Structure formats: structure tokens, C-alpha cells
Fold these 4 entries.
Entry 1:
Amino acid sequence: MNKIIITLSLLLGLLAPRGTSAQLSEKKILTLAAAEKIAAAAEIEANKRKATVVIVVVDDGGYPLIIKRLDDTQVASVKVGIGKARTAAIFRRPSRDFEEQIKNGRVASLVLPGATPLQGGLPLIVDGKTIGAIGVSGNTPQEDEDIAKAGVAALESVSKAPQSPVTQLPAKQVNGAYAKGMNLVKAQNYKVDASHREAPGVVEVHTKDTDIIYMLEGTATLVTGGKLVDGKTIEPEEIRGRDILGGESREIAKGDVIVIPNGTPHWFKELKGQVNYYVVKVRSVN
């Protein structure tokens, strides 16, 4: 891995124009876990006020991460809440600013692309950079903004908290991941996937990743080893095929742990009902 990083650094140096240095800046992003805390804080504030509102948290591009429509909130507030949050994110200022501009006679603000000129959207800022926004809609303009401010305050407490090397995933997030099958944690040399199957898969070979599988639910026939048939590289270090010649067939069920070394063909050939399992993928650094 170190050799790869050094080689890439040298290549970037050769490609850069003389007299300049090619650098990539670090960018902070709004994680789903942080967005959930922000939305939860706003919801607590809304409940204190007995407010019926929609709470929306978006990333820095204005795309929703969390949408909460509290009980008995009007449907129309959903799109308005998204609009307020998107405005605060992409223009990097409170959505109230555009409403004030219109009140003061600058009607051109009405036609700004992507802008919803209504109070209730606030940017989420860390170290001077906008990483997302929160929008609230459903009550009076000032109350919407006050509820959004509770979410902003939650971000400030999260960003100032000491950073821990330990990752904890809430059960709700983990359980939701199994509905579709998705990545839970991704680091430099490992990742953790929540995997869900309702039908047999294709033959897989990971040239650098060792799979450690822990079965949570269901029973399957797993074929490992042997010779891959019609293998095709679908992306770096990932090969797929239609069959295995030879190989070892085994039945795996809830509670089983299976370790599949990198370079080993493997195939969920048959399933008995749906199957859920964790996969920890450990990447070889050689």
C-alpha cells in the first residue's frame, strides 16, 4: 500500500505543470449520523412548542439526508422544507436573507435558480465551511427558524466533541441497511457491509479482499474454491463469473462464521428464504 501511495504521489508530481504543486484539499462532510442528531434536536424543540412541522437536513449540494414530517403536519410543508434547506445549503446563507431582499424591493430574488425565499432554512457550518443545511416548515416563519436553530446548536456540540477512533452505529441505522444491503463502515484497508440476499448471486473473486462473513438470518449453499468460469473484471480487484468448476459446497446458516481468503472464488448458489449477514472485508496491503 505504501508503494502505491508513493508511486501515485510521484505520478501527480510529473503531471503537474512546472512551478506549481498539485494538492487536494480535505473536505468535511455531513454524515448520516450527524444529520440524525441535528434532526432529532430540532424535533425535540418542535415537540416542546407542540409545533407541527417538517424538518429536513440536506448535504452541501442541497440533497436530502433526513426528512421528518411530524404528526398532523400539512403535506405541502414537505417540499417547502426541502426548498428552504436547499437554499441555505447552496447559497450558504439563511433562506431568510432572500425573503428580506424581496420585502425590500429586490424582486429579482424571486427568480434565483434553486432558491426558496422563505424564512426557516439555516446553513450548517464547520470551520467556516458550509457542509449542509437544515430547513423547517409548517408554522410561523420565526418559529420555523427557531426550531432549525436547535438543529444548528446540535451540530456545534457534535463538531466540538472530542473525536473518537471508535465507530458506533445505532441499531436503527444498521437494521435499515439490511433492507437494501449497503455499506456500513469504510476505511482505508477494511469495510463492513450489511448484506441482504433474496436470490442466488453470481460467482465472485476479490483479488485483494478477504471476506469474513457472519450469518444473521437464513440458510444458503455456499460454493468456494475451484475454477472460475467466464470471469470478467467489473472494477479494480473485483472479478465476476457465471459458474465454478469443482469447488467445495457447504450449507451455511444463522450463527456461522466463514472466512474466504482473497483470490478465492465463492458463490451463494442456493438460498432457503432471505439471507442477512455481515461481511467484513479486509484488504491485503501486499
Entry 2:
Amino acid sequence: MFSLEGKTAIVTGATRGIGRAIVEAYAAAGANVMVSSRKQDACDQAAAAINAKYSGKAFPFAANVSNREAVEALVSETRKRFGPVDILVCNAAANPYYGPMAGISDEQFEKILRTNLMSSHWLATLAAPDMAAQGGGSIILISSMGGLRGSDTIGTYNISKAADFQLARNLAVEYGSKNICVNCIAPGLIRTDFSRALWENEDNLKKALAYTPISRIGEPDDIAGTAVFLASGAARYITGQTIVVDGGVTVTLPGV
């Protein structure tokens, strides 16, 4: 039920953290994976490690997802290497600004939306025809628990992640008749380089864990399992949904 044997997957932001955990889990489940991030050497290293360990094969391809031509090249190269796309995981994200929204520049705001949201629209539009032609597929957007909350430091990032929820709902409606499932995963605080500013500070971490029923920070593998589930036949009747993977943070109420 959870096998991905023979499937072709694209994963962006795949060389570190959550993305790296997902490509490894996919390869372990039998999928062939396109390992993509901005830097070719990082893609090369990640793909080599996967090929040395897992049954599924990996191919490295650098692409800046904020550039449409790069995204088109990524999908085209995937077809050449592995065939039609069965699984798409939009994980790459950017957050060039940390502070109140009154201080963010237009360029920073636009970069966040282009990288975190527009790129997912492009990738889904490019990959969906492959899935439709094969009778179905899975599109997974890696969003964030932040999309459910306000913040005085990462507000624009959270806005982009809230938009993921609606993008998944809309695409679920548009692609449902083609048997394409579109869902979000909304991680809580995960131990990655991307979120280092939030967990490396001991005071921040202590504050976060005070309202986490599972009393630890999340690990990338905690997200990878959900990504395998959503890509597999076990989730074939789930679409338009957001699965929150946060150790229970969103079910608590601080101060009570």
C-alpha cells in the first residue's frame, strides 16, 4: 500500500533538511527521484549518497524555482531521465526577511511569493499533464504551521504558506477528475538549517516546547513519512487537505 516502486518523483529543495529526508524516503520506497536545489554540487552529493544506498535511483539537477525557465528545464529533464512525472513535492522556499512587515522591501516580499507560491503553480501546471495521461498522481506542497498563525517576525513567509493551503484546495478541484491528489503538509518547528534562527536560541526553543504535547523539536524524518503516505496508494482518496505535523502545537492554547 505504501510502495512507490517504479514511480517518478520531483522534489525541490531536496539537498538538505525536509527535502533531503523526503527524497531518501522516496528512494527507499522504490521511487526514482529528481534531486533538485539551487546548487549543482549539493545536488550531486545528495544523489550520489542516495544511489549508493537505496533501490530507487536519483538524478541531480540544479534549478532555482523562482525562475520559470529553470522550472521548465527541471520537468523536461525529469522526463528524459525517468519518464513521466508521477509525484511532485514543492519543498523549496525562501525567507530573506526577519522582522515586522512594515520593514520588508517590495523586492523581498516579491521574492518570497515567487519562490514559495508561484513556483508551485508553475511546477503543478507542468507536471499535471503527465499525471493525467497516466491515470493519476500526487502533488504535495510543503507548507508550514506558520500559515495558520500570525507572526511579528516572519509574517510574509506565513502569508505565502497560508496561500499554499488554498492553492492545494483549488488544484484539488481542478485536477480531481484526472485522479490527481493535491495536498499540503504543514510542519511545525523542525530541526533544519532553514529554521535554525527559531530553534538554535535556547530561549526560543524552550518557549516553543512549552506548548508542544510531544515534548521535542521535530526532525526531517517526521515529515518524510507523511510525504510517503500522501504519494502512495494509501492516500488515493485524500485531496485538498492540509496535514499538520507539529507535535501537537496547534491543539494547545498558550497561557491557559
Entry 3:
Amino acid sequence: MVRLFVARLAPFAVTLLSFGLNPPSALSQIVYPFETIQEYQATLVPIERNISKATNIGINVDAPYGLTDFVSTNYNELNPNTGVINVSPDPATFGLKNLPFGLVTFFGSTSDKLFGSISATGLLDFQNLVGNVLGTITITGGEGKFSGATGSLTFVENNTFTPDRDPTAPINGRAFVKGSIVAPTKVSESETTTALVGFGLIGAITLLRRHKDSILP
């Protein structure tokens, strides 16, 4: 009778042992605060009247997490009467077809990268030769420790123009960027698993002792 009871407990013990030797992993999240000053050159390529494609290449001053460089592409539409400029990563926003979606990439000397897109609006004051743009960088992924990252970074951009500037010449810009990034990470549950296995074995031994006591005279 005892042997039969032990035989019934054996699969349970094997399952607990297997569970302990192969602890599952859980997805946790790490929040990375992000703040930097971007200095860059923007090159504009006219596409249609008042619409252009912008390519920004620059550096992140005092960059966090080794993300010292960035490159971005997006589409701009400028209203020459009001000076209002709208920026979008989606060319369809301005009725453009068969053009690639805009992208921003943060990178550095390591394998860690961040991917996202830029949306913004601003005002260019041609009389005083200054421009101010407010926008959002939406993080949609990454590589290395930022694999699967999401987040939102806001930025304030200030530009100064010169009266004789060539419209096709690169524009020097400076932006203040701040926000946070959330990236998933795997965390071993070995400690929790060990505790569960221990409780399970204790319970099995207790049941076995009770069973033996119940059949002994």
C-alpha cells in the first residue's frame, strides 16, 4: 500500500524537480531616463511646392547609454504665408505616395540602438530670422539592451537663419531632448521556483507520513 502511494507521488516529485532545474523566466521592464542636447545639420530636398524631405545628422552631447550619434529622416510642409511648419514621418500626411516612412536612429560605439520617428510643429519667423519647433520622438524599438523598447521623448528646437542663406544649404540646429524609454528584460525566477519546489517536497513528505500513520496499527 505504501509502495503504491509512493509510486503515485513519484511523478509529482519528478515534475517539481524538473521545474527547479529549468526555472522559467519572466519579462520585467527597465525604465531608462533620457536627456541630451542634439547638435546637427539638416539637409532639405524639395519634393513638391512647400514640401521637402529633411535628413538630420548629428551628435547627442553628453549622451546617455553611449548613444552618441543620431540620424533621422522626415517630411516637412511649410506655409510661406504664416511661417508654420509641420513635420511628420509619414509622407502620406502631405499627400505624398511611394516614399519611405521617416525614421530616427540613436546609436554609438556599441551594439545598442534606438529606433523611432519624429512628429513636430513649429514657427519660422523670417523677419527676425529665427525658428522654434516643438516635437515628439516616439520610440518604437531598438537593438541590444533596447530590444523591444518603447517610449516618448519631447524636444525643443531652436534655429537661426542668415539673410543670405542658400535655401539648399544645410541648416545647423540645436535641440533639447528629454523623456524616458522602457525596455523589457528577462528575469530568472530561480529563487521563487526553489521556494515552490521546497514547499512541494515538504507537502509530499507530510502526505507520505500521514499515509503511513493511517495504515499502521
Entry 4:
Amino acid sequence: MIIADLNVDGGLRVRDEIRAAGGEAEFIETNILKTEDIEKMVAFTVEKLGRIDVLHNNAQTSASGRLGDISLEDWRRALEGGLTSYWYASKLAIAHFLRQGKGTIVNTASVSGVAGDFGLGPYNASKAGVVNITRVFAIEYGRKNIRCNAVLPGPIGTPPLLARKETDPETMEKIEQAIPMGRLGKPQEMANVALFLASDEASFVNGAAYIADGGLNAHSGMPSLTGIYPDFN
């Protein structure tokens, strides 16, 4: 396995954890905003492993604010990191998949790619783009034994959201209550979905957008007109 990340300390920690568990792993520092870094990542993988079987695109840059107030620079940066980097890494990986006769891409999108969020327009746009390039890669390369799918997480208990629970517990409580399961998702739960999509167990799954959000997207957002809510005795 090759871990590519801008966070060197975190990437090396994951590499060492995999090795300690008996796996093989290497790390390469990668800035998704630099096309040359993406090229180095792919070349490094082929050099170390001899091939690429699975590409997992799991990165994001974004900006917040009303869409009418977002600067052109922030808009471009959000799409460059959140969408263009996915396309470019996939483009480079597919060249190897075609030579090998198979390959799999898993893209981390978001439920924010199928609905809008206040103040997160650039994020919504990039994640919606990820969902649709996933479909296009799937239909264009499916007959070459190349699959492409996306996992669409809801709010997940990653370090930023867990930290916000300390600084803004009221908002985080509202978020948790908006999820029918009443809690944030766990990173391992998203990893399990990505693992399934990458594996041969999903050999006939192609172009799918797997929502994993505890039921958040299943709700219309309307307040209850009947007095029925998730909590009941």
C-alpha cells in the first residue's frame, strides 16, 4: 500500500501502523494542488509495487461563505483540490489499469454532493463533480474491467468535528440530532465502505454513489407534521 498525504507525521504514522500489523506500506508526501506531486505519487507507486490495483481519492480543499462572497481564487482552489486532483490522479492510474487489464477507483465524495449546505458552496460543487466524474469513468472504462465508485459520507467523527464538539457543542448537538441514527459516523465505518467498493466482493458494482450517512439524506428536512420523531419509547 502507498499512503500519499500532505500531512507527513500522519502519513508516516499510518505507514508504521500498517507495517506493525504485518502489512507492507510506503509513504510519499503529496500536495494535491500540484500536478507534479500527483505524477510523482503514481510513479512512486509503480516503482515500489510494480502496478496499481486500487486508487482511493480522498482529499479536499475548500472555502466557506456565501457563494456571492467567495473569491475567484478560493473558488478555483476548492475545485482544483476537491475535483481536478481526483480527475488527474484517476487519469494517470487508468493508463496503468489499461495495460494491466483491470483496476478500481474509489472516490470519497459526500452527501454534500447531492444536496446543498449553507455557506459551503465550493465544497458542494466539487463533491457533486466527484459524483458525476465517478459515473463517467465507470461508463467509459467498464468494458475494460475498470470500475469506479464513490462513497458519500455524512458527518463523520474526524478530528476537526470532534474538536468542534468541544468548542461549539450546541451546533454539533444539532448535527447529531439531524441524523436519524443520532450520532456521528465513525472513520472506520467509512473505511469499510471504501474497502468493499475496492474489493472483488463489489465486482459488479460500477458507477455507484454509496451514501453512508446514518440516514441523514433519507430525510426531506421538513419538520414533523405528525408528531413522529426518531426518539420513541
